Amino acid sequence: MAREKKRRSNGRRSPLAAAALIGIGLLLTGGIYAGASAAMAATDDNSTTTSTLTVEDGQKLFQANCATCHGMDLQGSEAGPSLYGAGELSVHFQVSTGRMPLQAQAPQAPQKPVQFTEEQIDAIGKYVQSTSPGPTFPDDETLDGEGDLANGAELFRINCAMCHNVAGAGGALTEGKYAPNLHTTTPVNMYAAMVTGPQNMPVFNNLNLTVEDKRDIISYLMYNQESPSVGGFTLGSLGPVSEGLFIWVFGIGSLIALTVWITAKSN
Q1: For residue 184, which of 111, 101, 116, 118 has the smallest C-alpha distance?
Q2: Cα–Cα distance between 94 and 197 in angstroms, integer?
Q3: Range 229-233 contact pairs with CB under 8 angstroms and sequence separation of 24 or more
Q4: Does the annotation flag 164 for ligand binding?
Q5: Dmax over Cα atoms in the chain, in whole Å?
Q6: Phi, psi of 213 (to 5 degrees)
Q7: 185 with 208: CB under 8 angstroms?
Q8: 69 is in an annotated binding site
Q9: Are 147 and 219 spatial neighbours (Cβ–Cβ below 8 Å)?
Q10: Which domain of life is it from (predicted)?
């Protein structure tokens, strides 16, 4: 009898077995669910990428996000200018840099995180272009970065450096306005800025700067973006202002510290 009882006790399942089986079941179920969710998300992403928004979609986006200031018919209002003749290139510049929709009234619309996808931006631009035609995108050759760098540098110094700095680092203007730095500006937005004249920037039409001139300036700026600083730390590329401040703080500071140290040693 004692042997029989012992055999029965050895045949019993451990109390942890049920918990282990439940855990394994949950892990399997969770893994299958996660895999299925990822597959569905990938399918949705692919379908979104391949879909194309229409002019009607752009109109809906405009009415929902832009019409409050620019009017339902692009006529403008007290809160925003008319978009008659603005064209899709101006829309791309303002929206792809996050300047629009405007967050708050200020001397200048600042850059901020972009609120729309490239597809949505293109749809809004197509709607504005269809309603009020204006400047449009250049051909690929204008943005290829293969222009004359020397001519581009000279044209930039003559026409742009007084605001944007000779190194494209930007600078302060009057009444709280400023010229942004061009270190991360895309080629298409460089062209858009010259053609549409956003903020305080003048419009450079083909009589001021030919398409080839614009290509040379864009090529020069693209070269600056990709080239390392051969002189070491740029100090913001702000020229004598930052360099003088550096010398004043660290150079004069070091001399004062050395003088105090020598005086303390002599005492």
Answers
A1: 111
A2: 11
A3: none
A4: yes
A5: 112
A6: -65, -45
A7: no
A8: yes
A9: yes
A10: Bacteria
Cα(216)–Cα(210) distance, rounded to whole angstroms? 10
pTM given for the model: 0.69
Rounded to an integer, what distance in angstroms lies between the CA atom of residue 29 and that of residue 126?
A: 47
The pLDDT tens digits along the chain (267 residues) read: 455 555 545 555 666 666 677 777 777 777 786 666 666 655 555 444 445 899 999 999 999 999 999 999 999 999 889 999 999 999 999 999 999 998 888 889 999 999 999 999 999 999 999 998 999 999 999 999 999 999 999 999 999 999 998 888 888 888 889 999 999 999 999 999 999 999 889 999 999 999 999 999 999 999 999 876 655 556 555 566 666 776 777 788 888 888 888 888 776
70 assigned ligand-binding residue:
yes
Round to whole Å and give the CA distance between 193 and 111: 14
- Which structural domains are found in the chain, ordered by start? 51-137 (1.10.760.10), 138-232 (1.10.760.10)
